[in-house]
Amino acid sequence: MNKINFTALKQKFPEIDKKIARLEYLSAKENDLFNIAVYGKYNHGKSSLLNALIGIENHFKVEDCRTTIKNDVFIDESAGIQWIDTPGLNADIEGEDDSHAVDAITREANLILFVHSLRIGELDQAEIDYLNELLTLKSASQIILVLTQQDQLRAEQFEIVYARIEQQVQDVKIRNICISTTRYFKGLSNNNSVQQDRSTMGQLQQMLHENYEHSTLQRDEFDNLIKEIIHYLENQKKYIEQKRAEKQQELRKMHTNFQNDVKQMMNKIQQNF
Questions:
Q1: Rounded to 5°, angle at Cα 133 from 224 and 130
Q2: Distance (Å, whole) CA 199 – CA 201
Q3: What is the pLDDT of residues 215-232, one digit of tens each?
Q4: Range 31-215 has CATH code 3.40.50.300
Q5: How far does the chain reach from its first CA to its final CA, in angstroms?
Q6: What is the DSSP letter of 213?
Q7: Are 22 and 105 contacting, i.e. CB atoms less than 8 angstroms apart?
Q8: Boundaries of every domain in the chain
Q9: 135: closest CA among 169, 166, 108?
Q10: CB-based contact 147:179 (threshold 8 Å)
Q11: What is the pTM of this model?
Q12: pLDDT tens for each residue of 70-107
């Protein structure tokens, strides 16, 4: 069986190079780890969220200044999960960190936690653009909008902000959940189940569990990628064939016109002589 030259395909069809790169990654993947990546703007609580999910408060660095400049991973062998912390989007002027984050999302992630801090307010236009871009590369079932720092808003503020965010994402039909990692870790340290429940981390963990336990996401995504790429290539073939047919028709018309012009010219010459 001939090996697929993914590099040549990406160079030949740059419009779908991210889809081809993801297919290449899935084809070469040697483990069964389910990859979950956090994605979002700098200082919105991505690292704190991951610490809560793995149950280790300070594994991923949580700083006021940007410290995650490349993808950081934590592998939970017992659960079969690889957690990926990506650099904060829009925090790097040169955009190099953004490329690391996008690479993790497009090539490696089975499931994406798009993180937004409720204390900031509604989603800004850049975040909406990021979400729309993700939805060209992943299905809605592969994205969860995680709204962090719920504890930093009063009840009336939360209702206003959350209602606005729901309006912003209603058309894309992605799941969302509001959480508080502060309440979660306080609940753990104080052995307070009420605080842990109020953090809603348990609900998020259940959502994730439903995705990776006996998940068909990866198999479905692999099959869908092949279908999408084949569909794109077939459309390209039809486009090329259509252009070739149009060119041939144009050449036939030019040839006919040329023959007619020559015939007319010969008739004039014969008439003159």
A1: 140
A2: 5
A3: 566 677 778 888 888 888
A4: yes
A5: 71
A6: T
A7: no
A8: 31-215
A9: 169
A10: yes
A11: 0.70
A12: 678 888 887 788 898 887 776 554 545 456 566 667 77
